[in-house]
Amino acid sequence: GLGLGPLVPASRLRQKGAAPGAWKPRTVLEKLKLRRQEISEAAEIVNRVVDHLQRRLQSCESEFQGVSRLCT
Known about the structure:
This protein is mostly helical. It has a domain at 35-65. It has helices at 10-13, 25-32, 36-59. It is elongated, with a radius of gyration of 27 Å. The relative contact order is 0.06. The mean pLDDT is 80.
């Protein structure tokens, strides 16, 4: 023989449920998605930080005094 071990019927390979302890990709992806409200809150915080940094850079003698914001 080829040393492949015993053959398993195809019906046993097509189990409907996941193996115990298996991760479910769709469930994981759903948990990783940010809700619209979360995105909005995060954007607000980022914008405040950027504004603060930009004001500080423009108020002091620095090579970065001429830095301007790029909106993407």
